[in-house]
Amino acid sequence: MSKSRKPAVCQAGSASALPPAGPQTADHTDSPGWVLRLSAWLAVLAVILLFVMIVAAALPAIQISGPGSPLDWVWQPGQGRYGILPMCVGSLALAALALLLGWPLAVGLSCWLLTEENFKFLPLVRFISGLVRFMTTVPTVVYGFAAVFLLTPFARATLGGTGMCLAAAALMLVLLVLPTMTLILMAGLRPRLERLCPWGLALGFSRFDLMRFFVLPRSGRNLASAAVLGFGRAVGDTLIPLMLAGNATQVPGGLSESMRSLTAHMALVTANEVGGAAYNSLFVAGLVLLAVNTAASLALRRLVRREAPAGSSAKQAATA
């Protein structure tokens, strides 16, 4: 009799342990969704308000025509010239040069860290991976302070001048954006490589062959997103251009010439001006920075949408 009662007790216990079905479970799963949707709408509203505020503050300065316009090539506040175009060109040149040097290094470094198969180099791979993650936590002012004493004397001896130039700032920006782009690329390339490794290694491919012939050609979205985020961080950095670029309000004609970025310009003018035409021109500079980052983000989204149909068709063919 006792043996026949045990299954009944187990069934009753298992039935009582089940969670109640019905509206309670639905409410529990829906509540995080409302929080996420509310957070998303608040973020969108904050960005829209930021755009509206900057545009409203920049419009009076944009409407000024003549020598006092911010859309001019001369910055001489003592003579009533408040042009920010040299700083716009300097920021774009600095960010483009840093991206041109840093993006290939990030691609190569991420591929090497993911495909290294020699067990002798595995400790080195782990060390470099940890170093890349550590570099993302180093404050920007530390990079700039170290470069003032280590990089600028080398630039002065090699390129001439004071050493505070476009090349010095670009080289330090490479160190700043390289860890970010490398980690983004590793996060995007690793899942693709791991999915291909079982059959690829069985067919005789090495991890490097899989990365070169199969993963990289189909990872345009990850490559572009790393480039866009690296460009955005290079354009938006303030301290490295402020400490290393020389802060000359001119269009740089070469790597050895001084220049001033928009972010450094905004920091310098804000420290010395409160109100007035020079201060109002900073809203135009902020609008330019916001427009550049927005254009880069929209270009990335368009690229992602173009790749989405190709990816979906490939998945359908694979499942068929």
Automatic annotation (TrEMBL):
* Keyword Transmembrane helix on entry: yes
Location (main, coarse): membrane
Chain ranges passing through the membrane = 39-62, 83-107, 127-151, 163-189, 278-300
What region holds the ABC transmembrane type-1 domain? 88-300
Its cellular-component GO annotations read: plasma membrane
Segments carrying the region annotation (Disordered) are 1-26
GO BP annotations listed: phosphate ion transport; transmembrane transport
Q: What InterPro entries does this protein map onto?
A: MetI-like (IPR000515), MetI-like_sf (IPR035906), Phosphate_Transport_Permease (IPR051124)
What Pfam families does the entry give? BPD_transp_1 (PF00528)
Report keywords, A-Z: Cell membrane, Membrane, Phosphate transport, Transmembrane, Transmembrane helix, Transport
* Top-level taxon: Bacteria
Q: Which SUPFAM superfamilies match?
A: MetI-like
Membrane topology, as annotated: Multi-pass membrane protein
Enumerate the subcellular locations listed in this protein's record, separating them with semicolons.
Answer: Cell membrane
**Signal sequence annotation:** none
Per the record, the similarity remark reads: Belongs to the binding-protein-dependent transport system permease family. CysTW subfamily.
Q: What is this protein called?
A: Phosphate transport system permease protein
Per the UniProt record, the source organism is Desulfovibrio intestinalis
- What does the organism's lineage look like at the top? Bacteria, Pseudomonadati, Thermodesulfobacteriota, Desulfovibrionia, Desulfovibrionales
